[in-house]
Amino acid sequence: MKLRVLVVFGGVSVEHEVSIISALQAIEVLQVKYDVIPLYIAKTGVMYSDPSFLDIETFQNIDDVLQNKKPVHIIKHEQNGMLVYKKKFALQKIPFDIVFPILHGTNGEDGSFQGFLKTLDVPFAGCDVLGGALGQNKAVMKMVLQDRGLPIVPWFYWEEHQTMEEAFVQKVKRLGYPVIIKPANLGSSVGIHWVEDEEQLLTAMKDAFLYDAVVVIEKAIVHLKEINCSVLGDKTQCKTSVLEEVVKEDEILSFRDKYERGEKGKGMASLKRKIPADISSDMEEEIKQYAVNTFHALQCEGVCRIDFLIDCDGSIYVNEINTIPGSLSCYLWEKSGVSFSKLLDDVLQMGLKKYRISHNKIHSWNTNLLSMYEKGQGKLK
Ligand SMILES: Nc1ncnc2c1ncn2[C@@H]1O[C@H](COP(=O)(O)OP(=O)(O)O)[C@@H](O)[C@H]1O
Ligand SMILES: [Mg+2]
């Protein structure tokens, strides 16, 4: 029997549509070998499943489509999971073997959806709760990278409840203008500002706080090269892809650069880029080593993409990790001799292996503590 793969996409995130593109790209390849069941999380957070979700055109007027659809639920079933929904008076059941989350950003890439699956005890591919959470939160991610001695740009974070008066302004000044302002928990460049001086600072901070209660302030690299490297693996083994150099037209790599300028419907795979990146082989090796160290430091599994900032003096900084990268970085792996189909096989196999290993650990005690509990006394006998 073919492995039944529940591919999950959409989600409550500013990267909702990007996730639909990434998922449909993967589904096209997965369908050759696996039984694919699509699970779409609407912007409201309600989950739906329907064969029409395998077609991108369905999403061009999704609000109308959803009017006739019934929500579905994921439940634990035998060793795996099952989708259930009501059709007339009967309960419909669609069993599956593993979940493949292809969600970007908040409420999906950040460990929250993975936490939901862990609570249900359902196998899933990719990073676990901790990897997803560390990778999504730019402030905590930087703390871990700093602790592991990985190079990052000078930075600090500020919370919404803290006042932005003299102490804050002085702290930014010490960092030195220009600075970059980023909501801690977003992606696709949403809410990010390039700030040249004090005058622009407060407006940028206020805008960033619209998206998150924690904002990261970091020194801007003015003459910048952006290099990305994908890592595929788990705790025991991993490999790196060729490096790409991304080409941007705005000051920062914007949402438009990422998804609107290239070939329509291709998501991250359409961004303008140079593969392999035009850098020395020494720098290439150094970046690959940092990519692997970042992958392990942030407890990652499956396929991730680590993004670097290179200053004109040759300094290398780890900028961020994407734990469910756009287009699953398939365009980098194809140039590294790993087909999209092989990449997806590997990520699924690692997910199954992780589930098996986790099941060999002790998760519950066969005790009957409650037999010792005295009714009405609120205490143990
Ligand atoms: N310190 C920095 N100096 C210069 N440009 C930066 C810096 N940090 C980010 N950028 C620019 O902003 C873009 C988005 O920032 P990033 O941290 O990657 O957030 P996101 O998660 O939204 O992709 C980067 O691709 C880069 O173009
Ligand atoms: Mg980025």
Q: What small molecules does this complex bind?
A: adenosine-5'-diphosphate, magnesium ion
How helix-rich are the residues, as a percent range?
25-40%
Q: Which CATH architecture of the largest domain would you pick?
A: 2-Layer Sandwich
| CATH homolog superfamily of the largest domain | ATP-grasp fold, B domain
* Class of secondary structure makeup: alpha+beta
Mean of pLDDT: 92
Count of helices?
A: 11
CATH structural class of the largest domain: Alpha Beta
Shape: globular
Compute the separation of the termini in Å. Answer: 53 Å
Number of strands: 18
Number of domains: 3
Query: Helix and strand string, N-terminal first?
Result: EHEEHEEEEHHHEHEEHEEEHEHEEHHEE
The biggest sheet, with number of strands, parallel, antiparallel or mixed sense and barrel status, is: 5 strands, antiparallel
Based on CA atoms alone, the radius of gyration comes out at 22 Å
User: Which strand order does the major sheet show?
Assistant: 14-13-12-15-16
CATH topology of the largest domain: D-amino Acid Aminotransferase, Chain A, domain 1
Uncertain residue segments: none
Describe this structure in words.
The chain has 381 residues and is an alpha+beta fold. The chain folds into three domains: 4-124, Rossmann fold (3-Layer(aba) Sandwich); 154-219, Dna Ligase, domain 1; 223-351, 2-Layer Sandwich (D-amino Acid Aminotransferase, Chain A, domain 1). It has eleven helices and 18 strands. It has helices at residues 16-30, 62-67, 112-120, 129-136, 138-147, 166-175, 198-209, 255-260, 281-297, 330-334, 340-359, and strands at residues 4-10, 35-41, 47-48, 73-77, 80-87, 90-96, 98-101, 155-159, 179-183, 193-195, 214-219, 224-233, 238-246, 273-274, 302-311, 316-322, 373-374, 379-380. It has a five-stranded antiparallel sheet with strand order 14-13-12-15-16. The mean pLDDT is 92. Adenosine-5'-diphosphate binds at residues 153, 180, 182, 186-189, 192, 218, 220-221, 224, 226, 248, 252-253, 307, 309, 319-320. Mg(2+) 1 binds at residues 307, 320.
